[in-house]
Amino acid sequence: MDHIIMVGCDLHDQSMLLKLAMDREAAETQTVRNTSAARREMIQMLQQRAAQAGGAKILFAYEASGQGFGLHDELTAAGITCYVLAPTRIARSTQQKKRKTDEHDAQQLLDLLRAHVCAGNPLPTIWIPNAATRDDRELVRMRLDLTEKQTRLKAQVKGLLKRHAIRRTEEARQGWTVVYRRWLADQAISSLPAGAAKTLESLLRQLTCLEEEIKVADQNVLALALSERYRERFYAVLSLQGVGLITAMVFLTEIGDLARFDNRRQIAAYLGLAPCSFESGKANDRKGRITRQGPFRVRKVLCQATWTRVRSDDNEREAYQRLVKRNPKRKKIAVVASMRRLAVRMWHRAVHGRPPAEEPSAPDADRVRKSLPLGLDRRGLAEFPERKVISPRFRKKVHPSKARTDASR
Description:
Layout: E1 4-11, E2 15-22, E3 28-33, H1 36-52, E4 57-63, H2 70-77, E5 81-85, H3 94-98, H4 102-119, H5 131-163, H6 178-191, H7 194-225, H8 231-238, H9 245-255, H10 264-270, E6 275-277, E7 287-290, H11 296-312, H12 314-326, H13 331-352, H14 365-371
Parallel strand pairs: 1-4, 4-5
Antiparallel strand pairs: 1-2, 2-3, 6-7
Helix pairs in contact: 5-7, 5-9, 6-7, 8-9, 8-13, 9-11, 11-12, 11-13, 12-13
């Protein structure tokens, strides 16, 4: 029988604590620095031990973290089987949570490996994206981070005005329009003390720079969407009402290989849109809130796209209002149901290249054109005719609960 060397690793920025054991032998503890040279020495040490044991197989496990997948790539390139485990799926008792040390964590990973090898217990592993998908995620996530920074800057500007009791004029009440920015640059600065005025000028300069960066990021994300790797799936997903460039690319890059899901329940569970279960004994149908596991960025863009669909799509609005009437005090249930339905349709279109049976058949080219950000360079979209886009700030805002259901809207 071939021997197996199992390693449980507690990974940190500067160090790695290892628990090594062969077969059912007692584990030994080693501490390794988390540097390129030290990792190479660790791999050589493991390979030497495997050779001394007559060609033993090496299994390595560590928890997913902000360290990324660099260690996994190095071990895999050296011929070592590496498992990256999900921390949220590792069962820990209350006593273990109160005695959390590096040695205990590494020992628990080693015990999971042994249970997997000896008893066939499943490992709570995560899906490892390839290098191209990781690189694409960096680009799309940077675009989302820019938007969050822009939102924080706008909140800082509003907070500064509020602290000095400066209110908008009637002409500058429509959001961040050109009139409002002109009012900020002229009247607001002149009404503030010297220090606050300089602060507001700095915030406005930062906001202008961020807006330029967002335009560049939109161009980069669009170029990625039109690449051969995403083009077909991008157009299939973008044809859905309420789904724009950023929503489509966040969905495609964060989920990665869509073919690894077999049905709608799996995609909903992966995105954290499935309810928790508290069922035992006679209580066999007791559900709680959604799990909120998986990529939170996808849930964020799905929520934004859902509200757009509720405001602009008659069928989606009717479905939302029907769920709200069923439970008026918990409107979030209706939002989550719409998010899940949208995620399933996006997955179905991206995988099969066609809408589900209940969806219209042909994509709307004009709707695809409107889904792209305003002012974006749309070269490469020749198959979609150009059409004038109305800015959202000039559209009448109607709350979904008060929206008309007639098709003329």
